[in-house]
Amino acid sequence: MTVIQDILLQLTRMKWSDYLDIIVVAVLLFQLLPMLRSSGAVRVAKVVGALLVLTWVTDILNLKTLHFLLEQVLAVGAIAVIVLFQPELRRIVDRLSNVKLTSLLGLQQTVQDADHVIAQTVAACEVMSRERVGALIVFARENRLDEYFKTGTQIDAQVSEQLIRNIFFPKASLHDGAMIIRDGRVAAAGCVLPLSDTHRLSADLGTRHRAGVGMSEASDAVVVIVSEETGTISVAVGGMLKRHLAPQTLERLLKAELCPELPEQRKSLVVRLTQKLRKQDKGGNKDEK
Question: pLDDT tens digit string along 118-150?
Fold first, then answer.
């Protein structure tokens, strides 16, 4: 009980700048934590963590020579990490630099707009699946995907079943690349995506599926893939591939991933933290009296 009282007393002594400091750090952590799920970030974290642990162990065991060598490695470790893990670090920086300001402020796409985009996409995928037309559709979320957007042709058009099917028509000039949908509009088509190098994918999957999984590994995007050979509909999210989806299942999955929360639940992280801190502050003042 004494610990709680000390914490509440400390909250009453905090200035507005202290609250702002906590909120900014919390927002940055909230945005950075999802990046640690990617395989590249995990690899970097494992190497750095292993070096730190080894250095600490050699210091405890008084292994002077090995401890000295590890200290020298850590001295130039930053440069080594940049050189060895340049692709992974570039992806992490790209994700952080392209985070949408609207997501931090709680300004999201409306449910009606998202429903329309999903409905048109599902309808197009259902027809393309039946006709064995390959497709690769990327839904951008917090990450703006500017790097990949520039590799294709800018379109900036309303999402419709007819437009999606025309772009992926086998004889169309843009059908081989990926379509990027962001802010509820078709932003670009014919885009080049990074290929996944994971060994978990089945050997019968081609370049289109590997590009979809690679895009989901490099960003927080949701990627829909329609197989040209089998007509199978798949979705890649967070490096995981879900295959053999029915149109109804595809619709439910896209709504779960893309639709914003209900208005009463759709509060930004900043607002939620501010309200929580205010409640704690009031509680501390009340106990102090």
Answer: 999 999 999 999 999 999 999 998 888 888 988
Question: Do you know the residue count of the chain?
Answer: 289
pLDDT reported for residue 43:
63
Whether the pLDDT of residue 186 is over 90: the answer is: yes
Decide the pairing of beta strands 178-182 and 135-139: parallel
Cα atoms in the 13 Å half-sphere on the side-chain side of 135: 33
pTM for the predicted model, two decimal places:
0.62
Cβ atoms of 220 and 257 closer than 8 Å: no
Order across the sheet with 222-226: list the strands.
153-158, 185-191, 178-182, 135-139, 222-226, 233-237, 240-242
Structure tokens at 96: 């952080």
**Are 268 and 105 spatial neighbours (Cβ–Cβ below 8 Å)?**
yes
Distance CA 36, CA 16 (A): 31
pLDDT digits (tens, 9 = 90+) for 237-271: 999 999 999 999 999 999 999 986 544 444 444 44
In the block, which residue shows the tokens 């979705």? 235
**Domains of the chain: residue spans and CATH:** 2-104 (no CATH), 109-258 (3.40.1700.10)
